[in-house]
């Protein structure tokens, strides 16, 4: 074969591959549309979901996605109950002992993917301390948490895990503080009226507490946590089995939203403004200037999870007595849904 012939053949192969990739990314929409109910707590960690919704990616797949706003949407126990009871088709929640215990019991849910992973410089979640305690010098370093009233979303959850890790790093234990459970919005109120000294918080509630002069970031999660997913997505098992293509298409559209979020976070300009409008529509923060200043979480563009980190957090839960036995990290998520999405979209670098 001549050099020109080889080049033509190579060009043809590239064209076929590109056409297949484009065809896969833009598959014909399902008809009639499949309704999918998913919860949301208006967290910045859900930004990829919001962008996929606002940009019409779910509709392009033939999905009628309904965002169910619930104050306890990130509480694993509540979300698991809603999923198992058929009140939700998909549910986002934080990692927790309750989730791992439920998986061990064989509750009717299936893991799809993590939405984000904690990085070493992550300031989008962590322990905030009342501003007056910081300004008075009563809090200067993590050792000063001793004797404080600290709020967490749930016992045996991601927030509890990170508070205990921070205490351990400071040479303290859980018996040195007073831990109570509060929702993220309620913790902001409690910090404001000084019935709480500190709390594990996430965005946008960190910035809301700061804007009210109630609290400031003291210990970012990036300083205490391994590369854990902070929010994970699960499905009702029966729904997923009966609608596997629809759920796979949901994950595909979601990963498109995740990648848009990553690009917007890094680039600024029109993409960043579009993200701000989306956050303004779906989160409690309506102040555009505040939205522009808030630290954004890391998003996971390929639905990947860190097996070592999943094993580490479970070891911690088991040692704390809140989890009975380990769930093999490889069994937390069913890879079929992400594999479908990556097969259509390709792997982001």
UniProtKB/TrEMBL annotation:
Protein's recorded name: Twin-arginine translocation pathway signal
GO cellular component terms listed in the entry, alphabetical order: periplasmic space
Entry superkingdom: Bacteria
Biological source species: Cupriavidus pinatubonensis (strain JMP 134 / LMG 1197)
PANTHER family (UniProt xref): ALIPHATIC SULFONATES-BINDING PROTEIN-RELATED, TAURINE-BINDING PERIPLASMIC PROTEIN
Assigned keywords, A-Z: Signal
Signal keyword on record: yes
SsuA/THI5-like domain residues: 47-260
InterPro entries: SsuA/THI5
Pfam families linked to this entry: NMT1 (PF09084)
């Amino acid at each position: 074969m001549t050099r020109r012939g080889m080049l033509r053949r190579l060009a043809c192969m590239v064209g076929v591959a590109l056409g297949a990739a484009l065809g896969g990314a833009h598959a014909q929409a399902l008809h009639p549309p499949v309704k999918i109910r998913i919860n949301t707590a208006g967290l910045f960690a859900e930004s990829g979901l919001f962008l996929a919704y606002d940009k019409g990616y779910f509709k392009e797949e033939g999905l009628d996605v309904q965002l169910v706003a619930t104050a306890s949407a990130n509480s694993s126990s509540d979300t698991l109950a809603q999923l198992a009871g058929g009140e939700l088709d998909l549910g986002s929640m934080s990692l927790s002992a309750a989730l791992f215990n439920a998986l061990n019991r064989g509750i009717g849910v299936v893991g799809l993917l993590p939405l984000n992973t904690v990085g070493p410089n992550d300031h989008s979640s962590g322990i905030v301390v009342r501003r007056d305690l910081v300004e008075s010098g009563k809090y200067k370093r993590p050792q000063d948490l001793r004797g404080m009233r600290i709020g967490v979303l749930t016992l045996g959850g991601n927030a509890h895990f990170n508070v205990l890790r921070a205490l351990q790093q400071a040479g303290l234990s859980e018996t040195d503080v007073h831990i109570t459970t509060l929702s993220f919005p309620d913790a902001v109120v409690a910090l404001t009226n000084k019935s709480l000294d500190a709390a594990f918080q996430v965005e946008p509630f960190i910035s809301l507490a700061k804007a009210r002069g109630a609290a400031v970031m003291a210990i970012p999660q990036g300083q205490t946590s391994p590369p854990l997913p902070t929010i994970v997505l699960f499905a009702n098992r029966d729904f997923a089995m009966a609608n596997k293509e629809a759920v796979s298409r949901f994950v595909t559209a979601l990963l498109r939203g995740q990648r848009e979020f990553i690009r917007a976070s890094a680039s600024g300009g029109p993409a960043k403004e579009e993200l701000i409008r989306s956050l303004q529509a779906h989160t409690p923060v309506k102040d555009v200037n505040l939205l522009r200043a808030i630290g954004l979480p890391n998003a996971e563009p390929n639905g990947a999870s860190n097996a070592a980190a999943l094993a580490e957090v479970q070891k911690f839960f088991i040692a704390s007595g809140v989890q009975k036995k380990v769930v093999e990290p490889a069994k937390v998520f069913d890879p079929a849904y992400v594999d479908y999405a990556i097969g259509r979209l390709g792997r982001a670098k």
